[in-house]
Input
Amino acid sequence: MKRKLLIVVPLMAVLVLVEGCATHDTGAYPPENGSFNNLEDSAKFVLLDKPTQYSVTCGSLQESRLSDGRLQVLANVRNRENRRIQVQVNCVFKDAQGFVLEDTPFQNIFLDENAQEGLKFVSASDKALRYTIRVRQAR
Output
C-alpha cells in the first residue's frame, strides 16, 4: 500500500504542475479558424439551427432594384415536413465588402404541412449590394 501511495502522490503532483503551467491568461491570442462556420459571409440563404436544417428549404431567390435604388429580395421558403411549423426569418443587407448595413428584425412565419411562403425584404438604402436571409427555429 505504501508503494502505491509513494508512486501516486508524486504523479499527481507532476500532473498538477503541468496543468498549472499550461494556462496562459495574458497577452494577445490569434483568431480561431475564421473560415470555419462562416457560411453567412458567402451564402444568400442560411439555416441557423439543426431543426430548421431538417424542416426548411428555399425554393428560389429573386433580387431586383427598385426605382429609388434600394435592393428588394423575394424568397420562397418551404416547409419540408408533414406538420405545421413556426420559424423566424430575417434579412441582413450588406455592402460590397460584406459589412452589415442593415439587419431586419426577425419575423414569425407559420408554414403549413409541405407549404411554401413567399417573403419580401427591402433594404432601407441604395447602398446594399449583398444580402443573407437567415432562418431559425421560433423562440
User: Anything to note?
Assistant: DSSP finds two helices and eight strands in the chain. The two ends are 58 Å apart (CA to CA).
